[in-house]
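FORM 12-B: Structure-to-Sequence Request
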């Protein structure tokens, strides 16, 4: 585009607006939110492949849990009738199979009779008299397979668990289940929980959060930009750039049919906060040009602005892109797509900054000056004098140079504390921790965990070498010990396996005596009990705990927390008996949503490390290439290395875990934080070619220090908007990214500045100076 051409400027503006409109229409018709958390994980990973296979073997599904609480006792006609009605209503829905709905109404009551083993429901019709209700109560509370697991020990709360396929769940379905529960309240209270509910709620809240946060960040950024740039025109052009880049990004996601994951809801905040940096540096350069040459024409000012800033702005955009693109190395889909599409949005913001802003200036005139022959808009004030700013910058530069040793000691102390904090960083796989402690879903989950075994599960899959191995008393006794060991952990509530059936049958077939609540003593007796159950009960129940050949078995642990610490503790407990099982020809593996969440967090950690190392190496090489000096690349990496260490140290000290969301921090910090270093090095090298080091330092601190301070203030203000998110991890991310930007800025104007000054003192570069013009 020829800069002075108004026709070309109009073409650029109209083309940008047309593309934006097209992408906006794509968003309106094709945007899709991913609600299935299994889709966040790489299904080709061996752990997920095995888990999915085990889920097919034993029909392992996550369940929706409805808790029915009566203030006095469940064992009254009204409450038992409601449990029956709710069970039948769920079974009638196409999302559930009849056998997938477990409640007091459908559960098996295994008992011994004179004729042998008898397996029946606790009640078919609701008893109308007190004697009938008492019989039901005694049967339920005397059955350890039910009491404490499906009915609370005090007899006031009952669970209805309805297993569901992941793809069958939707926010609309969740609302219908909630409405079904509410319609049966009084005097009972009903609570709805379970992993599918967590997934659906996250999706609904995520989109609502994005719709609320985007306008808020626009308002905050607009206010901060205006305070810094003191021009409606500059603020408007800069904001239009980032708004269009955000629309283009989500438009491309819609075009490629990529769903919106929970973490992607932060893309608008990131792009708006990051994208304004290019406009700030362009307008800062324009400000400097007009300050040095007040009579400069509109065309010449725009030309010189682009000539002086296109290279550092391009390089800062590329390094930011590298920070986000490095996230593609992650095997976690939400992180991968977040990095890829945010990188695309950054490049769009760069492109529009270099063409749309100049075109806007050609059409609207230069900001901050009175109108006249050279062009402008009437009524705008002259730029403020910069004498005070320059004196402050000079004093700061002089102070840092004089206090070199104190600065280095302070940095060393901060690093030492940070390294200690890093040792305390932990990874959190909990999806429930995405919700505020006072939210309905968190309160419901806590309520159920307080009275029952837990809403989260870990499946331990046992595989034997020989057919019928899980009829051997020695193997079954070891599994029983394994269950007892796991249940001894504070966050493991209950466990369930084939041994629970056998212990119950052994007891009731021996006059319900406590001493027979144990694994049968012989293989023959085990086989006899299992045959009796298959003849009297529902063989499909056994299929959930053991396969037809008795070569594979499923042990389910109920957990009161879904974070990685709880899951790892449970795995460590059962692994202690793995050698003994191995001796008996039984191997151990894991499956289910709880285990997949743990693998998920491990992938986050490995991806975090690889993306951080990759981004730092590429950024160092890019900066070295830009300045034709490997040393310059290493010096430019100093602020981002400092920021990464301090950031992780702060997370450890404050107990903020590494999660899907906070895993993004280091790559964001690398990509954005190095921008400050590039602008600072570029300006400092320019000034040292014609000025003494002290004067070059003072001018760099005044010009570029001012610009990167403005940049940092805007990014920090934008990211702090995340503190208003409904998701605690998003709030942590906003606070940590803001702190990282401050650390990068401070590291640039202190430690990196000292390294540059020391290098300059040893000898100036021999190549000729680059002209600002």
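FORM 12-B RESPONSE
SEQUENCE OUT:
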């Amino acid at each position: 585009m020829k800069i002075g051409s108004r026709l070309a400027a109009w073409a650029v503006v109209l083309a940008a607006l047309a593309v934006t409109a097209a992408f906006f229409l794509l968003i309106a018709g094709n945007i899709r939110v991913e609600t299935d958390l299994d889709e966040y994980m790489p299904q080709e990973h061996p752990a997920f492949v095995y888990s999915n296979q085990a889920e097919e073997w034993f029909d392992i599904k996550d369940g929706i849990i409805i808790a029915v609480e009566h203030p006095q006792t469940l064992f009254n006609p009204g409450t038992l009738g409601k449990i029956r009605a709710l069970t039948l209503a769920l079974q009638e829905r196409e999302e559930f199979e009849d056998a997938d709905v477990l409640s007091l109404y459908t559960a098996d009551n295994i008992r011994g009779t004179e004729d042998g083993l008898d397996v029946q429901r606790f009640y078919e019709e609701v008893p109308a008299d007190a004697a009938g209700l008492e019989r039901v109560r005694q049967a339920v509370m005397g059955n350890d397979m039910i009491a404490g697991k499906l009915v609370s020990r005090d007899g006031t709360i009952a669970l209805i668990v309805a297993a569901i396929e992941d793809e069958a769940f939707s926010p609309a379905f969740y609302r219908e289940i909630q409405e079904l529960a509410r319609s049966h309240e009084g005097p009972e209270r009903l609570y709805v929980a379970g992993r599918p509910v967590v997934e659906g709620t996250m999706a609904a809240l995520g989109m609502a959060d994005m719709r609320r946060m985007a306008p808020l960040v626009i308002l905050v950024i607009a206010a901060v930009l205006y305070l810094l740039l003191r021009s409606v025109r500059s603020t408007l052009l800069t904001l239009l750039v980032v708004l269009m880049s955000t629309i283009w990004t989500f438009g491309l996601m819609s075009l490629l049919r990529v769903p919106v994951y929970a973490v992607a809801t932060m893309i608008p905040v990131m792009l708006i906060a990051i994208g304004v940096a290019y406009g700030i540096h362009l307008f800062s350069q324009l400000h400097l040009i007009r300050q040095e040459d007040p009579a400069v024409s509109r065309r010449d000012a725009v030309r010189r602005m682009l000539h002086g800033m296109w290279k550092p702005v391009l390089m800062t955009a590329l390094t930011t892109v590298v920070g986000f693109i490095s996230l593609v190395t992650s095997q976690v889909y939400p992180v991968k797509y977040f990095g890829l599409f945010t990188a695309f949005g950054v490049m769009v913001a760069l492109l529009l900054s270099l063409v749309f802003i100049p075109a806007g200036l050609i059409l609207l005139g230069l900001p901050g000056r009175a109108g006249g022959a050279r062009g402008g808009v009437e009524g705008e004030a002259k730029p403020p004098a910069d004498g005070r700013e320059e004196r402050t910058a000079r004093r700061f530069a002089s102070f840092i140079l004089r206090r070199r040793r104190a600065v280095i000691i302070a940095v060393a102390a901060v690093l030492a504390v940070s390294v200690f904090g890093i040792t305390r960083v932990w990874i959190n796989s909990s999806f429930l921790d995405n919700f505020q402690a006072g939210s309905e879903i968190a309160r419901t989950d806590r309520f159920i965990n307080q009275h029952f075994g837990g809403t989260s599960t870990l499946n331990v899959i046992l595989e034997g070498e020989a057919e019928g191995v899980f009829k051997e008393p020695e193997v079954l006794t070891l599994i029983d010990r394994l269950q007892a060991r796991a249940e001894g952990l504070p966050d493991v509530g209950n466990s369930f396996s084939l041994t629970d059936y056998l212990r119950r049958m052994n007891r009731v077939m021996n006059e319900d005596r406590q001493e027979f609540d144990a694994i049968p003593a012989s293989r023959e007796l085990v086989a006899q009990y299992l045959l009796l159950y298959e003849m009297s009960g529902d063989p499909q129940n056994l299929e959930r705990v053991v396969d037809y050949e008795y070569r594979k078995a499923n042990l389910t642990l109920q957990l009161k927390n879904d974070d990685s610490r709880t899951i790892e503790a449970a795995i460590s407990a059962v692994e202690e008996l793995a050698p003994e099982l191995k001796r008996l020809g039984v191997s151990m593996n894991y499956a289910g949503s709880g285990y997949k969440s743990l693998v998920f967090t491990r992938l986050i950690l490995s991806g975090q490390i690889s993306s951080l190392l990759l981004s730092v190496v590429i950024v160092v090489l890019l900066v070295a290439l830009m300045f034709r000096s490997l040393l310059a690349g290493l010096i430019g990496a100093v602020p981002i290395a400092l920021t990464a260490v301090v950031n992780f140290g702060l997370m450890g000290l404050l107990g903020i875990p590494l999660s899907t969301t906070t895993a993004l921090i280091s790559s964001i910090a690398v990509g954005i934080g190095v921008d400050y270093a590039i602008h600072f090095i570029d300006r400092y090298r320019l000034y040292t070619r014609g000025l003494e080091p002290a004067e070059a330092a003072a001018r760099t601190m005044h010009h570029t220090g001012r610009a990167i301070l403005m940049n940092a203030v805007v990014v920090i203000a934008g990211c702090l908007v995340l503190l208003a998110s409904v998701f605690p991890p998003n709030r942590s991310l906003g606070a940590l990214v803001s702190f990282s930007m401050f650390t990068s800025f401070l590291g640039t104007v202190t430690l990196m500045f000292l390294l540059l000054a020391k290098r300059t003192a040893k000898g100036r570069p021999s190549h000729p100076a680059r002209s600002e013009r």
